[in-house]
Amino acid sequence: MIKVLILFLEGFVTFTILILVIFAFIYYFASFIEERMKTMTNIIKKLNICILFVSFLFLFSDFSIYVFATVFISNLLWLFILYNGFPFIDTLRPDFLIAILCTLISHFLMMIHFLEDEETSAMTSSSFFLLFVWIIPIMIITSLAANEEDCYGGNSGDDDESEHQGNHSIWKNAISRLIHLAGEFLPQMPDKKD
């Protein structure tokens, strides 16, 4: 019973740390993308095309045709979004919503595949999830948050704190609050002068 409790606690702590790392990555990645939007758009497009070509190798491996189809279709939809109005897109467009739905379905099908295959290591399965399922949506959604801040925030030279807070995107404010909350629980390093 205690081993199960410890295992559950370990899984919860690992999951929490993983979520915090992902949010920190997205938070700091947003400012990087904001400064280099055109370059990042080209990088995302080229990466998406490479992923589409590499995903054809699924046909020659032990992945089911459904995993290949959903991964290919979701990445094809993300590529369509990249070439049609990105980074100025509406998140309620049908192609954007279908791309998110296909990404979730491909995540689910790939998860079933890796749960049935006991020989695959956790690192290998995580790499497949990151490369074929989540890297493009994370980069696109992060750049949307950075672009929203760029469109509405801008540096007007006004240092009014309340006005500056209203200009940030919803995602960036939420992630900033989560990182600040996590920072309160982390041990603090003493000052080097002490």
TrEMBL record:
It is a multi-pass membrane protein. GO terms for molecular function: COPII receptor activity. GO terms for cellular component: COPII-coated ER to Golgi transport vesicle; endoplasmic reticulum membrane; Golgi membrane. It is found in: Membrane. The chain crosses the membrane at residues 6-30, 42-59, 96-115, 127-146. InterPro entries: Svp26/Tex261. The keyword Membrane applies. GO terms for biological process: endoplasmic reticulum to Golgi vesicle-mediated transport. Keywords: Membrane, Transmembrane, Transmembrane helix. Belongs to the SVP26 family. This is Transmembrane adaptor Erv26. It comes from Tritrichomonas foetus.
